[in-house]
Amino acid sequence: MGKSISVAGLSAWYGDQQTLQSIDIELKANTATAVIGPSGCGKSTFVRCLNRMHETVPGARMEGRVRLEEEDLYRMHPVDVRRIVGMVFQKPNPFPTLSVFDNIALALRLSGVRRRSELAERVERSLRMAALWDEVKDRLRQPATELSGGQQQRLCIARALAVEPEVLLMDEPASALDPISTLRIEELIRDLKSRYTIVIVTHNMQQATRVADRTAFFLNGELIEFGDTSQVFEHPRDRRTEDYVCGRFG
Amino acid sequence: MSQRKRGEMHVMSQRRASRWADIGFRGVAAVCSAMPLVVLAAILAVVVAGAMPSIRYMGWRFITDITWNLGNLYGAISVHGGVRAPAGASYGALVFLVGTLASSAIALVIAVPVSVLTAAVLAYQVRGPLQSLLSFLVELLAGIPSVVFGLWGILVLAPWVGSQLGPGIAHLFGWVPFLGGSAGTGLGLLTSGLVLALMITPIITAAVRDLLMQVPRLYREGGIGLGLTSWEVLRHVCLPIVREGLIGAVALGWGRAMGETMAVLMVGGSALNQLPQNLYSPISTMAAVIANQLDSALTDASHMAVHALAELAALLLVLTVVTNLVARLLVHRVGWTAGARGVRV
Question: B224 and A156 in contact by Cβ < 8 A?
Fold first, then answer.
């Protein structure tokens, strides 16, 4: 089951430049939250703070508190945080030297799963969850790079799901994909939210309305508005949100 | 002639000139790009031609025999199998072959892990001025003349190896074949390997650092995002991606270690006619012997000693070329490469 995330006073910097300004937000368990906003508004930085990916960039730092249920993520070891809070990236990034199977099995092996039958079973389960099994079940030994872009992205989702996270962060997961592949990813997100808490960054507002229960609007590193997706898009409370969702800027 | 006409003619003559310049450029470029091949072929030809009499004189015994004896340089010259050589001359290079391979192997065993880890730190862990400074220091290390390494080896490293490290290893791992026995003076195989390791570490480090920096951050983040540790990301994501270049970098370092002359000449202990008995025995490498023996070889009236040194040089050259080829071949044989977007050098 997914877990809720509560963020308090989250600020983030790249070098001297502040990209997030004291964000407070509560993300409920088992919901899909869309994070929207124009380029450079800090939406990617925001999700990258949730799995402590932000701090891996040289010169990046953050302040504030991020809690998963009662646990403070910034008091845990970052490696453990990333096992609980999985991530899917803007561009499909399967490990280019590994097969389809090994892309998923790698993290499982490294976390101590040794038995072949268990590995095979968990790889299959992850691929099924990512709606990819039927397409690749005869190609498990092939290089992951031979899959199509959309398949590679679903492989990355399967890879993230294999380690059984509670939260799945998706940073514009469909921005590099064609419309059909995009729809398949969106379908997948709707399926997955019963089991995971999902945070999806998107610059595509239709996508936000299609997949997200809740929507957060970021502008210049600030959280401007956060509410039910239908409310944010149909009855925005803030003028800037209205301007953005009506396409007046961005 | 009108002004306009004159202008046109000027343009045309300029065009013609630039066409000639282009032909000239192409010619120079062609000559320059052919240089590596020409130089390699020329060196190989000279060395092999120089080695021919020795090849006829010694045959395969050149690489199976351990006796290296220039013979009586002031006595009678005897004729053997159609070639002239001093009486009693024997050119068995096995000792030098073993010395070269063993010392460079020790150097690699030490230098490769150190280099890869240093490169990973330089590429991923430090940044800004510190990164530049450390990179600069590594490159500075690569520029130290080998005779300085040799001198340091004699004055500092060899005494330490002879009195501390050698006896220490012999004491702890004496039950392992080749590691036990007397640690000798410190001038020998182990010290040579250590000095060579120091010399090739900066070379391999710089190459591997450049490779690792080419790995797209996206792939590393893929690993980090799955909860892999820095080491696991390096081992399972980054190194496989640069595998091909990595093997090239190791081959580069190995070539340098085998060809290194001055430093191993100074710390190797100049073994003659005796294979190393253990890790601490004196050795000679092929390169060191060529440098060391050339002087006396030149006094050989039959010139056979010089031919033998040429054969040694040919063998060394072949060895380095073969190492490189085998390394590259290995890369293509290991696993599938079709879909792998590897980074190459």
Answer: no
